[in-house]
Design a protein that fits this description.
This protein is an all-alpha fold. The chain is built from 16 helices and two strands. Among the domains are: about 80 residues, Multidrug-efflux Transporter Regulator, Chain: A, Domain 2; about 110 residues, no CATH class.
Length: about 300
């Protein structure tokens, strides 16, 4: 093209694919200024206008506002600086869309009230610092002022959600549910009782790995009983219940009997709290961990078996 050639708005529209109305708007805004005017008063543009319009269209497609575009085409701002500033905008928009999807998905599943939806939306939008403060308050309510043994610090770390910078939609959804759960007073109280029992047993010199050993023993003993459909109250369950109480008695260094079985029953009822298992399922989703094994059927069978034998 000849650098001295001038083009009408119609010519620019045919060459750029933009509408006459759009080009006139950009011209009125000063983004693409005319180079001259015809005797009849029509605006005329030089070849540089075509390149500027191509750049303007590209920048608009990328989401830049017109004032910023004008500074770029007038070389008042470096394109690289503007691109760096706008590069984070899609990530922000993606996070916002994920938050919206998580809230709306949860509302649809639960049939939530407008008040519940408002709370979920608020929880989803919390900043990282706000999330940490909220979970710190939750963990303090559960573990605060208890034995400072290292095992409690480890438990606190293992129960802390860490939502990534760019979470998937299911992670945001899990965070909303976990955050709600952590604010439930009855759930906090049940975990607090469990932590207090554990602290008391530790103070009495009980073995640190008792809880892990008990879970492993329950899984080992009760798993086959579940597979064989043995009822917890049946005579066939007697040797399994005896093995559980014998293990607990051995770990605690105390004789088996009604008192010990009641204590074991209380412990199993505590760990069989459905919301506790749900908390750890959600925690695994948020933190990107493998889904934890569900011991609910094992614990439920054990609880029923011990209740039956404590009553005898």
């Amino acid at each position: 093209m000849d650098g001295d050639t001038l083009y009408s708005i119609g010519d620019l529209a045919r060459r750029t694919g933009l509408t006459v109305k759009t080009i006139r708007f950009y011209s009125d805004c000063g983004v693409v200024a005319p180079a001259d005017g015809s005797p009849a008063g029509y605006r005329l543009y030089d070849v540089d206008a075509i390149a500027r319009l191509d750049l303007v269209r590209t920048l608009r497609d990328l989401g830049l506002d017109l004032p910023t575009i004008r500074k770029v085409v007038d070389r008042e701002l470096p394109l690289s600086e503007v691109a760096a500033a706008y590069a984070e905008a899609p990530e922000v928009e993606i996070r916002i869309l994920r938050l919206r999807r998580a809230v709306l998905t949860t509302v649809a599943k639960r049939g939530s009230t407008p008040e519940e939806m408002g709370l979920m939306h608020k929880l989803a939008k919390l900043s990282e610092d706000e999330r940490r403060r909220m979970m710190g308050d939750f963990l303090d309510a559960v573990f605060g002022r208890l034995d400072a043994h290292p095992q409690f610090a480890g438990i606190m770390r293992s129960t802390t959600p860490e939502l990534p910078d760019n979470p998937e939609a299911e992670q945001v959804e899990a965070w909303v549910e976990l955050a709600e759960l952590s604010q439930d007073a009855t759930f906090r109280a049940s975990l607090r009782r469990m932590a207090e029992e554990q602290a008391a047993e530790h103070a009495q010199g009980d073995t640190e790995g008792m809880h892990r050993d008990l879970a492993a023993t329950a899984r080992e003993q009760v798993g086959p009983a579940l597979s064989a459909s043995i009822e917890p109250a049946s005579p066939q369950a007697d040797p399994i219940a005896t093995a559980l109480t014998a293990h607990y008695a051995h770990v605690l260094g105390r004789p088996d009997g009604v008192e010990l079985r009641r204590r074991l029953l209380t412990r199993l009822e505590s760990v069989n709290e459905p919301r506790r298992e749900r908390y750890f399922q959600l925690l695994a989703v948020i933190n990107g961990w493998s889904a934890p094994e569900s011991l609910a059927p094992v614990f439920e069978w054990s609880v029923q078996a011990l209740r039956e034998r404590v009553r005898r």
